[in-house]
TrEMBL record:
Bilayer topology annotation: Multi-pass membrane protein
InterPro entries: MCP_dom_sf, MCP_transmembrane
Family membership noted in the UniProt record: Belongs to the mitochondrial carrier (TC 2.A.29) family.
PANTHER family assigned to the protein according to its UniProt record, in alphabetical order: LD43650P (PTHR10780:SF18), MITOCHONDRIAL CARRIER HOMOLOG (PTHR10780)
Pfam families: Mito_carr
SUPFAM superfamilies the record matches: Mitochondrial carrier
Keyword Transmembrane helix: yes
Presence of the UniProt keyword Metal-binding in the record: no
Cellular location(s): Mitochondrion outer membrane
Protein species of origin: Opisthorchis viverrini
Keywords: Membrane, Mitochondrion, Mitochondrion outer membrane, Repeat, Transmembrane, Transmembrane helix, Transport
Record-given protein name: Mitochondrial carrier
GO terms under cellular component: mitochondrial outer membrane
Solcar repeat spans: 163-251
Length: 339
């Protein structure tokens, strides 16, 4: 009997672990994350400007109004709120989200090493759980070192049999669901801290104070406000992405052919398209984190009893892409349109 199943103790060490320096460097982008959150909440202090696309310059279309780009927005927040507030507001909650997400990224990478042993032998899924060995009679597959590191999981999802694919997909969904669940309280605190800048409220100034304010205003359930649309968006994106990649590889490019640049580009386009499709769920979840909060910025969220009417409102009013485009921000609110 061959030792077909790789035991957890024998898993190779990963070398792509984020370093402390890189982790700290991530926190330096807090001004952009803060500005992005403010944009999601509909805070637009800068007047829209007329934008001339190439087609508009040729007279084929009319110019449109757009908000200034994200760099001008960040500069404005520095001038309005001060450097220290922009750098420090929500930074601990943001760092906690990054830390938890990195833990799940490592767990996902570790599971992909185990998934590699399942390819070509569907029974190995059961064998891995009960500890029994199997003769490896499957066709040879690429080793984990031979795979394209950026598309390793995609390759595994595409090459596996349906039963193994569904098992992998279920594990991926489970990891994503747990990541959303554990990061949601920190997301709620971070968004409320950022939102307090709009009205100048002080009950969310520091992380411990913000945690107490969330509990006092909305109770324990307040730490999970907005989790349902966010969870829906993440799970829909995960399922549709890996399923679509599998169908593209098997029906168009062929499972026996080596991964090509065209296939990689196709899957990148699928990913970007899906992120745009599920973005309204993310936006709705961000706004709903303020529901029940005693903040001026929470007025929009408090108008709706649940996330579904809010999502419908955002789509109907053309605000569903609020914050999606950093440069040409065309989600101009009707109250800001020049008369």
């Amino acid at each position: 009997m061959s030792d077909h199943i790789l035991r957890p103790s024998k898993l190779p060490e990963r070398s792509d672990v984020i370093s402390l320096e890189m982790y700290l460097l991530r926190q330096l982008i807090n001004p952009f994350r803060l500005s992005w959150t403010l944009i999601k909440l509909g805070y637009e202090p800068l007047a829209p400007v007329r934008f001339y696309s190439p087609l508009a310059m040729l007279g084929w279309t009319t110019p449109i109004y757009v908000y200034p780009n994200i760099f001008q927005y960040v500069y404005h927040t520095f001038r309005t709120f001060g450097v220290w507030k922009i750098i420090s507001t929500g930074v601990f909650a943001s760092a906690s989200i990054d830390f938890i997400s990195e833990i799940f990224h490592r767990a996902f990478s570790r599971r992909s090493v185990v998934w590699e042993t399942w390819l070509g032998s569907p029974e190995s899924v059961t064998s891995y759980s009960d500890g029994s060995g199997l003769e490896d009679t499957s066709e040879p597959h690429l080793t984990i070192q031979q795979r394209h590191s950026a598309f390793r999981v995609e390759d595994q999802m595409e090459e596996s049999e349906w039963r193994v694919f569904l098992h992998m997909l279920t594990e991926a969904m489970s990891l994503k669901a747990w990541e959303v669940l554990l990061t949601q309280p920190f997301l709620v605190v971070m968004v409320r801290q950022v939102a307090s800048l709009i009205g100048g409220e002080t009950q969310y100034s520091w992380f411990p104070v913000a945690v107490r304010s969330v509990y006092r205003e909305t109770g324990f359930s307040g730490f999970f406000q907005g989790i349902i649309p966010r969870l829906f968006g993440e799970l829909i994106g995960t399922v549709v992405y890996y399923t679509t990649c599998r169908l593209i590889r098997r029906w168009i490019f062929g499972i026996q052919r080596k991964r090509s640049t065209s296939l990689c580009m196709s899957e990148v386009l699928v990913y970007l398209g899906l992120r745009g499709y599920v973005y309204p769920f993310e936006l709705t979840g961000c706004i709903m984190t303020l529901r029940g909060a005693n903040l001026i910025a929470a007025n929009e969220a408090n108008l709706f009893s649940s996330w579904r009417p809010l999502r419908s409102y955002l789509i109907a009013s053309g605000q569903a892409n609020r914050g999606w485009f950093p440069i040409c921000r065309s989600h101009v609110q009707s109250k800001h349109m020049p008369t």
